[in-house]
Design goal:
Length: 283
Amino acid sequence: MSEFSKRVLFSVIAAPTAILIVYLGGPALVALVGVISGIATWEFYRLSRATGAEPFEGLGITLTALLPIALYAKELGVTRLPVTAAAVIAISTLAAAIWLRPPGRKPTISVAITILGVIYAGQLSYLYGIRYHPYVISAGAGAALVTLPLLITWATDVGAYFVGRAMGKSLLAPSISPKKTWAGAVGGLILAVLVAVVYVSYVLRPVASLSMTLSATVAFGAIVSIAAQVGDIAESLLKREAGVKDSSGIIPGHGGVLDRFDSMLFVLPVSYLLLGWWLIPAP
């Protein structure tokens, strides 16, 4: 089977499954986010090992996978959990360094890389936060709201690809991603804004009874598009330093989890923050 066929087959199976799980929410969504986050953390540590770092892989992967469970527990009434989770991550990593990384093996770098991996891959947990935004009143509304930043990210990729091929001359980050251009970045941003305006007006409002003002929608589309492009380049930077093409080969035809979700690691927390400011119930 060709790589393209693998990509199509995986997408045909994975996309509807993911949409269904987002719609169902609850434990199913927690499990999905936990598994994807854990794999993303493993890939991040895989890249860091190629540069000579020695992260605490088992500890970091476990902590990242537990983050969506912590959010779910908070929804069930556990208080001050984010503060508790941050303390657990820092203390447990430092404690591990005492016995597993003597001074000669650069314990500070091991601790820093481990914590960074948890923070970086753990941003996927914001998917749960968006799905259960306070204004969401139904499973359909939650799924529709989650779709908004995902669709903007997809529109950014499409716009950047086609505009970049047609008009791109000046490179955006030549030492990191030599195919990305400033024209493509602007094209992706413009398409993202257009998609955001259309989706909020004709899908989010009637389906989820949620909305944003026109100015907020335009700003949301633009900022999320920028976040998506920065996230993509950031992962490319990690791979360049590690000297690899893909973060792993775990997804048939697609590379690794980080290769597919690199933009979302920036998009989801930014979207969560902006929706907290600008999302309103539709009149």
